[in-house]
Amino acid sequence: MTRKEALFKDIFDKNNRKVYHLCYGYTGDSEAANDLMQETFIKVWQNLDRFRNQSQISTWIYRIAVNTCLSYLRVEKRKATDEINERIIETKADDVSDKQEQVNQLYKCISQLEENERIIITMVLDEIPYQEIAEISGISEGNLRVKIHRIKSKLTEIYNRHERF
């Protein structure tokens, strides 16, 4: 195994779950999220030699993932404008645990947020430090904290609306 292959394997092992969750937050579809995660890591592999260590590698990977997801969503919107927001996470089996149903409901609510809100809340759920989220989002940490508070309020409102039905 070459040095680059070993480095890539380590990077993939440390970041693949977070990238998958980010992609899932954008799409609400596990197959699309998996495809986007793979596409993200192909880009990471292709551009690994160009990484300049000016930020954390996870920040760089998240930027690639966000851009990959946004490109995907632009194509999807051209295909069917309303389809993305109407995607519902389907329960695949009757024996899904309550916790899994709550997670599915959360992602269903997240999919109704605006694109920039989805990325921020997904990173918060993945426990990315606020400083890193601010860097990825291109906003100050103080502004980020305000946005997170508003996103959580909006999510609560969306969740409560669904609970009434």
From TrEMBL:
<feature type="domain" description="RNA polymerase sigma factor 70 region 4 type 2">
    <location>
        <begin position="105"/>
        <end position="155"/>
    </location>
</feature>
<dbReference type="InterPro" id="IPR036388">
    <property type="entry name" value="WH-like_DNA-bd_sf"/>
</dbReference>
<dbReference type="InterPro" id="IPR014284">
    <property type="entry name" value="RNA_pol_sigma-70_dom"/>
</dbReference>
<dbReference type="Pfam" id="PF04542">
    <property type="entry name" value="Sigma70_r2"/>
</dbReference>
<keyword id="KW-0804">Transcription</keyword>
<comment type="similarity">
    <text>Belongs to the sigma-70 factor family. ECF subfamily.</text>
</comment>
<feature type="domain" description="RNA polymerase sigma-70 region 2">
    <location>
        <begin position="12"/>
        <end position="78"/>
    </location>
</feature>
<protein>
    <submittedName>
        <fullName>RNA polymerase sigma factor</fullName>
    </submittedName>
</protein>
<dbReference type="InterPro" id="IPR039425">
    <property type="entry name" value="RNA_pol_sigma-70-like"/>
</dbReference>
<dbReference type="InterPro" id="IPR007627">
    <property type="entry name" value="RNA_pol_sigma70_r2"/>
</dbReference>
<dbReference type="InterPro" id="IPR013324">
    <property type="entry name" value="RNA_pol_sigma_r3/r4-like"/>
</dbReference>
<keyword id="KW-0731">Sigma factor</keyword>
<dbReference type="Pfam" id="PF08281">
    <property type="entry name" value="Sigma70_r4_2"/>
</dbReference>
<dbReference type="InterPro" id="IPR013325">
    <property type="entry name" value="RNA_pol_sigma_r2"/>
</dbReference>
<keyword id="KW-0805">Transcription regulation</keyword>
<dbReference type="InterPro" id="IPR013249">
    <property type="entry name" value="RNA_pol_sigma70_r4_t2"/>
</dbReference>
